[in-house]
Amino acid sequence: MKRRALRDEPLFFERNPKRRRRQGILLPTFDGPSTPPASVLPAEALMDEQPLWPDICEMDLVTHFHRLSQLNYAVDEGLYPLGSCTMKYNPRINEAVAGLSAFNAAHPLQPDHQVQGVLEVMWELEETLKTITGMPGVTLQPAAGAHGELAGILMIRKALKARGENREIILVPDSAHGTNPATAAFAGFRSVEIASGPDGTVDLDALDAAMDSNVAAVMLTVPNTLGVFEHRIVEIADLVHSRGGFVYMDGANLNAFVGRALPGLMGADAMHINLHKTFSTPHGGGGPGSGPVTVSEALLPYLPVPRVVKTDDGFAMLWSDEHSIGSLRGFSGSFLILLRALVYMRGMGGDGLREMSETGVLLANIIRKRLEGAYHLQYDTPTMHEVVFDDSEQVKHGVHNTDIAKRLLDYGFHPPTMSFPLVVHGALMIEPTESFGPQEIDAFCEAMLAIAKEAEETPELVTSAPHETPVKRIDEVRAARNLKVRFIEES
Amino acid sequence: MHPWIGAGPEDRQDLLHELGFETIDQLFERLPEGVCIDRLELPPAQDETALRRQFFDLGLNNTTAARKPSFLGAGVYSHIRPAAVDAVLSRAEFFTSYTPYQPEISQGTLQALFEFQTLMTRLTGMEVSNASLYDGATALVEAALFAFRVMRMKRKRVVVAETVHPIYRSVLDTYADPTGLEIITVPAGPDGRLDSEALESTITDDTCCVAVQSPNFLGVVEDLGAVSQAAHGVGALAVHVVTEALSMALIKAGGHFDFDVVCGEAQSFGVAPGYGGPHLGFFTCKEKTIRQMPGRLCGETVDSEGNRAFCLTLSTREQHIRRAKATSNICTNQGLMALAATVWLEGIGGAGLRRLAEDNLSRAHELARRLADEDTGWRLAFPDSPFFNEFLIQGPVGGAEIARKAAEAGILAGVPVARWSTKWPDGLLVAVTENNSKADLDALVNALRKTS
């Protein structure tokens, strides 16, 4: 049943462009004298008075976006098993609290005594993250996971400099997310890949051979992007530390073991935590995220500023610190996201957070068990919160992972991740999260099994998918070749 | 079992049995013993009533523009936030979805991004806009790195006006060392504007780009034409940084002066101050340099039936394809904030936006006039320099002291610049927007007068 896209929705700029209303939403009026712009601004700096776009009434505005919204799939519509992205339920109480004007109207340059509530939230979140990771320090500043990686790597860089060392290389497993090598390069390092072993985990011998005195750090995702826990993590960390390197842990998959294990005990020196994954803040159609970084004792002096500190007079913002790497962004963090995450953690409680991880792992294993046989598993190592199949069975019939993904849209599900891990060709990385009940998992597995059958019996049905979506398969090549990235009015 | 978890206790047992397991611990057998814990030492789950109460109480410890007249700006502004914007943003189809990797079921987000890109190019006068960056400060960093790439890594000296927001400059410093950029600051003259002679003598054929903010940190409108000419004179790129995006509705942005990049912060467009985030970084440039642009980009195309459709494009610049060779490591950006700006800008309307900017100009200039006319003892630091909705004042006491005194009288008077400025350490930066009524202006004038 096709329920979306009842009508085409034109671009805003195509809505009665000739109509003049003087304003859209009603503006406040000033009961003082008006200042003609030309009387106070240089003529060459003044914009033309011609409006830059049309004005519409409020009903038209709301209609426009309501109709656009109906073209989107979202977590609230059903399972969104995008592996590594952790598309879980976004509790509405988070939104209610973040909507309080006492928080969202706070200005980041207000004196500390005026924003004690804000600072206490940040302090409490820091303490909670320390408990969850078993690590002694944290910065809340990074704006997203990749930004957190950068914070961590820059702290490692500074710590090495303090030791008088100029190490140039960062080792990244071949299964890593693309942000890891990009971050290493951004921070001035060269990233070198280390091959995975036959079970999908880091090959300790390869690491041993690569881990020389020019290696600054190893970036590891735990569990890795195959969903496999690096069971020799302690040995890995010991090896890296014994050669003077640091262990950067990509915490994108922290949701697999909250309350079951501590990164601090694994030997992590820095780890970013995607609040928009593990701690339920909304993904917003592509952000905002938030990527706090927890650090070991060795990196404490290098934490970014500003950061919150507790004093005898209450909470304060520390704007400079001798050895700090400095500021990574404007102000002290995406506070309204931090606030949502703290509401979630308190709403879940310690035991709830542990159950969260356990259930996510359980459901991922159910999906693995039910789809094994129909889809090929490159690694048979036990997995945790996600499972990576590949399309090698279906390719025999000319059906690729992208086709399976598009066909899944017809069944009313968002597809799995396909762009990585690069070690699995034709990957289908599935992460259910803990949010949905077993019936939704049943329905997803049935859809996947039905598609596997279609791939064998009626492959053209799959390769021509999607059939039931608001638009049909999109020509992405044309978008790149014939670039149109803004609306230009035809004259 | 917690209500935010889908499988209940009975489901859990059934599912475990399906896997041939007795206990949940069996799923965690690969975790080495030394890293495991039995439970988290955190308080038990709290219900919504308890949560609402405790966070409401925490909120009472904040004094904000929600309850007090506020003249706080310095890069974060209080503007109207119509209820319709929040209503659109609270639609789950927008806020519970993710990056539109599957365009067939993401046309809503994609079309909104395409509209955002169009709005930003019209405001800045530039040819192309990306789909957002983290914030204004990181947008400046990305602009410097962009210029470095456009110059094929051959020029590494980034010349930045002293009048660029000091926090943005400190963020740029953080990234400069690891990325190999050399940052050179050009001082401001006594009129609060970039010293053009100093600029001329600083830039050389080794300069990668010249970054100038206008209206600048001190509120003063810079001479963008002169900066563009000077930068291009030595073959460098010209970068216009914007912190008060509303100014572009009234005052020509860099695109009208042949700038190569116009970037910065668009929090003014419907995004809450939120103690500093999430805000909305933007980045616009010329079409010929689009392949060096950081961040996501939405493009128009067609579907297999020939209908217009949108998708993310030029992803070969991005980390998930290019990995270590990507133009930036950014992945998740500020999608929902870009949507907020789109709804806000379209809702205010083209003519409305111009009127709103004129309204800000009128209120700010009225306050400036009254400070001078009513013998308050306070004066504009740069009386002869043009400004939009923000200006620096000096008076009988320092900025921090007057801010403290005004706060006692229930007014958030502005941002003291002593933390950053050695040239004007006693100044108070005052921003006036449409949210400041005439009564607010009266209150501030009275508070200032009392100090003289």
Give me some keywords for this one:
heterodimer; A: 491 residues; Aspartate Aminotransferase, domain 2; Aspartate Aminotransferase, domain 1; 2 domains; 10% strand; B: 452 residues; alpha/beta; 14 helices; 13 strands; 13% strand
Q: Using the coordinates above, name the CATH class of the largest domain in chain B.
A: Alpha Beta
Largest sheet features of chain A: 7 strands, mixed
Main sheet specs of chain B: 7 strands, mixed
Terminal CA distance of chain A: 41 Å
What's the CATH topology name of the largest domain in chain B? Aspartate Aminotransferase, domain 2
Number of strands of chain A: 12
The CATH architecture assignment of the largest domain in chain A turns out to be: 3-Layer(aba) Sandwich
The top level CATH class name of the largest domain in chain A: Alpha Beta
Portion in beta strands of chain B = 5-15%
Could you give the order of strands across the largest sheet of chain A? Answer: 1-7-6-5-4-2-3
Radius of gyration of chain A: 25 Å
- CATH homology-level superfamily of the largest domain in chain B: Type I PLP-dependent aspartate aminotransferase-like (Major domain)
Order of helices and strands of chain A: HHHHHEHEHEHEHEHEEEEHEEHHEHHH
Shape of chain B: globular
What multimeric state do the chains show?
heterodimer
Kindly describe this structure.
The complex is a heterodimer of chains A (491) and B (452). Chain A starts with 36 loop residues before the first helix and ends in a 10-residue tail after the last helix. In chain A, the strands form three sheets. Chain A has a seven-stranded mixed beta sheet with strand order 1-7-6-5-4-2-3, sandwiched between helices. Chain A folds into two domains: 255 residues, Type I PLP-dependent aspartate aminotransferase-like (Major domain) (Aspartate Aminotransferase, domain 2, 3-Layer(aba) Sandwich); 128 residues, Aspartate Aminotransferase, domain 1 (Alpha-Beta Complex), CATH 3.90.1150. In chain A, α9 links the parallel β4 and β5. The longest helix of chain A has 37 residues. Chain A has 16 helices and twelve strands. Chain A is α/β, with parallel strands linked by helices and 491 residues long. Chain B has three domains: 46 residues, no CATH class; 264 residues, Aspartate Aminotransferase, domain 2 (3-Layer(aba) Sandwich), CATH 3.40.640; 100 residues, Aspartate Aminotransferase, domain 1 (Alpha-Beta Complex), CATH 3.90.1150.10. In chain B, α6 crosses α7. Chain B has 452 residues and is an alpha/beta fold. Chain B is built from 14 helices and 13 strands. Chain B is globular and about 80 Å long. The mean pLDDT of chain B is 96. In chain B, the strands form three sheets. Chain B has a seven-stranded mixed beta sheet, sandwiched between helices. Chains A and B meet through α2, α3, α4, α5 and α6 of A and α1, α2, α3, α4 and α5 of B.
